[in-house]
Amino acid sequence: MKMSRVRRRAGGWNISLFEERGGTDRRPLSPLHLRITFLTGRCENHLMADGYTRSGGLSAGTAVAFAVGNMVGAGVFVLSGLMVQTAGPAAVLSYLLCGILVAFTGLSYAVLASICPGDGGGYLYAHHMLGPYPGFLAGWGMYISVTIASAFVLLGLGIYANRLLGTAFDPRIAALVGLVLLTLLNLRSTAEAGRAEVALVAAKIVVLLLVAAVGVINLTPADFTPFFPHGTGAMLDGVAMVFFAYLGFQVVAMMGGEIKSSARVVPLATLASIGIVAVIYCGVEVALLAAHLPAYGDSSLFDAAVVFFGGWGGTIVAIGAIFSTLSAANANIIGGSRVILTMAAEKQIPGRFAALKGEQPANAVLLSAGVAAGLILLGNLGVIVDLTNTVALVSMGLVNISAVILTLGHRPVPGDRTYFRIPFGPLIPLVGAGSCILMLVTLPLPVLAAGGAALLAGTIFFVVEDTPEGERATAEIREFIEREER
Asked: Is the pLDDT confidence value at 103 over 60?
């Protein structure tokens, strides 16, 4: 059986995306792989990491909708104007470069997702490739980032609702109402949540594409002059600013167990969602430049809509923003609950969080909603949002390292497995890991310290002994999963 890494062949590189291998041949394990199996306590000679899969009812289109819905939120409705303020016309390049950097990590997710299908995403990959504790750090980092993000965008829902209705209510009221509704939706059915996500994403994309199209029509070459009004350094600072806006692509891998043919769909949905969102972001930035606003800030998209469409333009964007925040929060709640479910089922955190009600991880959904509610009540998420980038970069870095080990460690895949292949061996995941490290070292020391504290706090869950009730819950979830797999 040939290895999953790409090999140099006569006539060029073999860069086919999916390939099936058969046979029973096993190559000798590399010293690196022997070291990995020693650290993880496993002596397997091939990767048999199916993860936790249940109904597998979500289609490829729904998977893309979840990822796009998770990414297209505050990153476009609020951050787009701030980006023009920071980098000028070069903001378009900032979004594009950041999308390319994230795509390197997306390729690491793609190859690992095709070999390790199931709920959990980065946690599942790091757990099987690096060991239990690195896997825990990857999963906990993802969970913290998506939970903070759901609270952040729901507070945005309250702000946009006030603009639409002309009211001045506390934004936390609308945020909590939205959280309750989304929680009830996710307790009912993943399929129903998926249908709602597709509808919400479609609505906001129509609004954004309409604004972008009118902006492109009105664009002139002079709108890009000067391209670097604040220097190339401002453009690079912008790359770090918009990183948060791309994090949502992870949600597809987090809920892989819910997706039909996840080994094939998750990689393609991950890469497709990054590409779609990059086009939307760049299109909106072009529209803002074409609007010739006197000043740019967090409400510039509203102002641009008024310029292009008149008084009702702001109403359209406000409605689109409400759809955007709801869909992003919905995707975050689902993704976070799936990570907690998988970690609890594998005894990485107390087993009571693995309990299912029907086919839904009710306790995991309620945990995610409870944490988000607490953050919403705090109201001021300025410092906490900075933590998102820190913990997310740690998590994504571990996923990239897992992909590097997969390619350098010569770990074969099962003979009947269809897997995603990336070209040039470990080069792409190495670039992905390097970009994560580079962005980490540019963060302020207090933020890095706070992020480390958040990861350390989660370690308490990792080391604490479970209760008898939790042990019973873990046994029940494992029995349920085994029945579903049969």
From this structure: yes
